[in-house]
């Protein structure tokens, strides 16, 4: 049975596509949406689970009007499955940068972690993963921003309500007011 049969398509539509469509229809600028999405995805890749939401909230508080808060949070939500898959690459990158000891990813290492026998090694591994993410994050953010700008320009053009239809009643009211005053 295909994955779509388990309700992934309706879930994706409800949790990702519909909120994105609402964001696009509200009229945010493409560059702001691209930056906010890139920021949310980059922060969503932070290698410590459960911390990404707090990082996004802090980024929104610091950047305020420069980012679009719902887009940052939606991108963070979308990045969650990818976050776990990139912990090991960030760990290896941090080890390579610091020339630190190689953390073994074996069943014995997992047993030591579970029973608390590898506390120092785990802390060093977490530090290496954080170092790897810190080095990679600016490149990820910049690359995503450059790729997402044309995507959001297209999407905003396609889904934004036609501005001429929104302005017509205001123009008619202004003309009516002028005509009444002229009489």
From TrEMBL:
UniProt entry tagged with the keyword Membrane: yes
Residue ranges annotated for the DUF2062 domain, each copy included? 14-158
InterPro entries, from UniProt?
DUF2062
Q: Per the record, a Pfam family?
A: DUF2062
The record's keywords, sorted A to Z, are: Membrane, Transmembrane, Transmembrane helix
Transmembrane segments annotated in the record for this chain: 33-60, 72-91, 130-156
Name of this protein: Uncharacterized protein LOC109709897
- List the taxonomic lineage: Eukaryota, Viridiplantae, Streptophyta, Embryophyta, Tracheophyta
